[in-house]
Design brief:
Blueprint lengths: L6 E6 L2 E6 L4 E5 L1 H9 L5 H12 L10 E2 L7 H7 L3 E5 L29 H13 L6 E7 L7 H14 L4 E8 L6 H9 L3 E5 L4 H7 L10 H14 L1 H7 E7 L5 H10 L8 E5 L13 H18 L13 H16 L8 E2 L12 E3 L4 E3 L14 E2 L3 E2 L1 H8 L6 H4 L22 H21 L6
Parallel strand pairs: 4-11, 5-6, 5-12, 6-7, 7-8, 8-9, 9-10
Antiparallel strand pairs: 1-2, 2-3, 12-13, 13-14, 14-15
Length: 460
């Protein structure tokens, strides 16, 4: 009957384990038990005793979810009427750069840069919508996105003034995603005065950054201009810069990762700041992204050094900052395993990916269309969950929330059911290899988590 156990086998360098899906637990097992669960050969009494012991402890259940249902459905109207806390405004679809890998660059089958910009009336309607639908929230978050949002700096100033005046009794946090080439003293002063969280796009050293990030209408890279602006910012507001400016690096997998990591670890303008990174995807791309073997080797080496540091075998300053994201992913897994213990899967449930569309991070584009977040394509009809003039389209919201129905027969027997990250952004990729990538990623994180725990690292 072993084939009915809802488990996943984990063969690691430090032992044999199973991930028990029903209880959301990782359990170490013996070699013989592992082979039985893998091949069905039970040739010792010890294996039988081990199996019976695990069953008695509540593991090795055969329970599967019987019906796809997102648990948020029963509360969706309350959530969207009272708990919308985060609004992201696409103040422009224009940009002063033409980054080759940008989804607006024309190199993808989704969006392109346009001259469209958000007018004041649309922006104020969106802010009013946020205030009206956040009755249960003490803190509101207002983000500015593009294109390059600083092209519409005057509109940003008016939005900040308006929400500060009208969000009675609520704290407001501001953030902006920018290429930082348009920063001036006036803009920097304003961002600091209003305590903005600032995410700057920076891909690495000059030769890497300028390879993809060039000014519109020219072949000139923007690295020098960006770094000059950051230097001024850091000099005038050193503490704010250190604590409120972070960086996102978009990595081409044919670049040498080591030089990028060394840049972020040593350059005085970035080495003390938070850094996130992502690898360019060829999903929807009109060209194929080639992954260089040296990139893979550099990535694995950076992760290895990071783990040694976490175990206390290297000093922290020897760790390349950009590799920290890999460890954060393992911490997220550890957090999930510790928080969400259960006796078995519920009869009605859905895979772990979709958030409540519109509640977690409501994105409003230049025309007032509403989407679940700024990462999805706003030109895809299924992602448009309403308009600020008409409110939420509940049919669209429920369609995204219930997307588990679409693939339920495929998903119900999948061992990463509750750890899956498929959401509105990645929904179209399910039949394009995305599921296998998800499984490999979760398995890799589990194995690294097991190894680190075995070597003495405590996850809190």
């Amino acid at each position: 009957m072993k084939e009915k156990y809802f488990i996943h086998l984990l063969d690691t360098p430090v032992g044999k384990y199973i991930y028990d899906v029903n209880t959301n637990s990782i359990i170490e097992i013996g070699e013989g038990t592992f082979e039985y669960l893998k091949c069905g050969k039970k040739n010792t009494n010890q294996v039988d005793r081990d199996i019976q012991k695990m069953i008695k402890q509540g593991y090795l259940k055969t329970t599967r979810v019987e019906k796809a249902k997102n648990p948020s459905i029963d509360y969706i109207e309350d959530f969207l009427n009272n708990r919308v806390a985060y609004l992201v405004l696409q103040v422009t679809q224009g940009c002063n750069l033409r980054c080759k890998y940008c989804v607006y660059s024309g190199g993808y089958d989704t969006r392109t840069h346009t001259k469209k910009r958000m007018n004041y009336k649309t922006a104020i309607k969106a802010i009013d919508f946020l205030i009206e639908h956040s009755k249960d929230e003490d803190t509101l978050y207002l983000g500015f996105y593009g294109g390059e949002p600083l092209l519409e700096f005057e509109l940003i100033k008016m939005c900040v003034k308006y929400i500060n005046k009208n969000a009675f009794g609520k704290k407001v946090e501001f953030n902006i995603t920018t290429n930082a080439t348009l920063l001036t003293e006036n803009i920097v002063d304003f961002l600091v005065e209003n305590n903005f969280q600032i995410l700057v796009s920076l891909d690495g050293p000059k030769e890497t950054h300028d390879l993809s990030r060039q000014f519109a209408g020219s072949d000139e890279g923007c690295f020098n201009k960006l770094m000059d602006n950051l230097k001024f910012f850091q000099l005038k507001y050193p503490e704010f810069y250190k604590n409120r400016v972070s960086f996102n690096s978009v990595i081409l997998p044919d670049n040498h990762l080591k030089s990028i990591e060394e840049f972020f670890s040593t350059n005085p303008l970035v080495k003390e700041n938070a850094i996130t990174s992502s690898v360019v995807s060829d999903v929807y791309s009109k060209s194929t992204i080639k992954i260089d073997e040296k990139y893979v080797i550099d990535e694995q080496y950076g992760e290895f050094i990071l783990f040694l540091s976490k175990l206390g075998w290297f000093k922290n300053e020897q760790v390349l900052n950009i590799a920290e994201q890999n460890f954060r992913n393992i911490e997220d897994l550890a957090d999930n395993l510790m928080k969400y213990k259960r006796s078995e899967l519920p009869k009605e449930w859905q895979h772990g990916g979709p958030c409540v569309p519109g509640m977690k991070r409501l994105f409003v584009n230049v025309e007032g269309k509403m989407c679940p977040c700024e990462k999805v394509s706003e030109i895809a009809d299924q992602n448009v969950i309403g308009h600020i003039d008409k409110g939420f389209d509940m049919n669209k919201v429920l369609a995204i929330l219930n997307q588990g129905n679409k693939y339920f027969e495929k998903c119900k027997d999948c061992w990463i059911f509750s750890l899956c990250g498929v959401c509105a952004l990645t929904n179209d990729m399910v039949n394009n290899g995305y599921c296998e990538l998800q499984k490999k990623d979760v398995e890799r994180r589990m194995i690294n988590y097991i190894i680190l725990k075995k070597l003495g690292l405590e996850f809190v």
